[in-house]
Specification:
Elements lengths: L7 H15 L6 H8 L3 H4 L6 H24 L4 H18 L1 H6 L6 H4 L3 H14 L8 H21 L9 H17 L10
Helix pairs in contact: 1-4, 4-5, 4-8, 5-9, 5-10, 9-10
Length: 194
C-alpha cells in the first residue's frame, strides 16, 4: 500500500533536489527513502526501480530546462534566439549541475514519444532553427551540433577545465557566433550551401 503523502511527483522533485546536493549518481532508491524517512520498499509502489526513477527525473529536468529556454527565446529569431537559447541552456546547466547531469540519460523511444517535455524541446529547438531554413536531415544534424557544443562547453566549464586566461564568457560568446555562422552557411544534404 502506498505511504500517505508520497506521490510520484513528490519523489521526482525530491530526486531533483538530491541530484543537486549529491550529484546525479547520488540519486538512489535508498537515498530517496532516507529523505522521506521510509524503507526502500515504500518507494516501489510509486516507481518500478532505479531506472524508472532516473527516467522520470530526466523527463522532469528536461521540462524544467525547456520551460526556461522557452521564456528566453519568446519573440526572438535568428542569432538573437540562438543566443538566448544557448544562454538559458548554459545557465540551467551551471545552476543545477546535478539535475543537468541526471537529464543526460538515454530515454527509450517508446517513452520519449509520449513525453510532453521532449515534444516541447523538439518544437522549441526546431522553432529556433527555423530562421536558418534547415529541413531534414540537416535539421537533425544541426540539433546534434548545438547539443554537443552546449553540453561539452557546460561540462568542461563546470569541471573547471578551462584554464587559459581568456575570459570564459567571452569564449562562450565566440562559440555562439561560430555556431550562428555555421547554421547560416550550413552545408545542406541536397548539396546547396546556406
Amino acid at each position: 500500500m502506498p505511504r500517505a503523502g508520497l506521490t510520484v511527483d513528490r519523489l521526482v522533485v525530491a530526486a531533483a533536489e538530491l541530484a543537486d546536493e549529491a550529484g546525479a549518481e547520488g540519486v538512489t532508491i535508498s537515498a530517496l527513502a532516507r529523505r522521506f524517512g521510509v524503507k526502500d520498499a515504500s518507494l516501489y509502489s510509486h516507481v518500478k526501480n532505479l531506472r524508472d526513477l532516473r527516467v522520470r527525473l530526466a523527463l522532469f529536468v528536461g521540462g524544467e530546462m525547456i520551460d526556461r529556454i522557452a521564456v528566453a527565446v519568446a519573440g526572438l529569431a535568428g542569432k538573437d534566439a540562438l543566443t538566448a537559447f544557448a544562454d538559458a541552456y548554459r545557465a540551467y546547466a551551471l545552476q543545477h549541475p546535478g539535475r543537468y547531469a541526471a537529464g543526460q540519460i538515454r530515454i527509450d523511444q517508446d517513452i520519449a514519444v509520449d513525453s510532453d517535455a521532449l515534444r516541447r524541446t523538439a518544437e522549441i529547438t526546431h522553432g529556433m532553427l527555423r530562421a536558418y531554413g534547415l529541413d531534414e536531415p540537416d535539421l537533425t544534424d544541426a540539433v546534434r551540433l548545438l547539443r554537443s557544443t552546449f553540453h561539452g562547453y557546460c561540462a568542461l566549464e563546470a569541471g573547471g577545465s578551462f584554464g587559459a586566461p581568456r575570459d570564459v564568457q567571452r569564449s562562450w560568446e565566440k562559440a555562439i557566433d561560430a555556431l550562428h555562422m555555421a547554421l547560416t552557411h550550413w552545408p545542406r544534404e541536397d548539396g546547396r550551401s546556406g
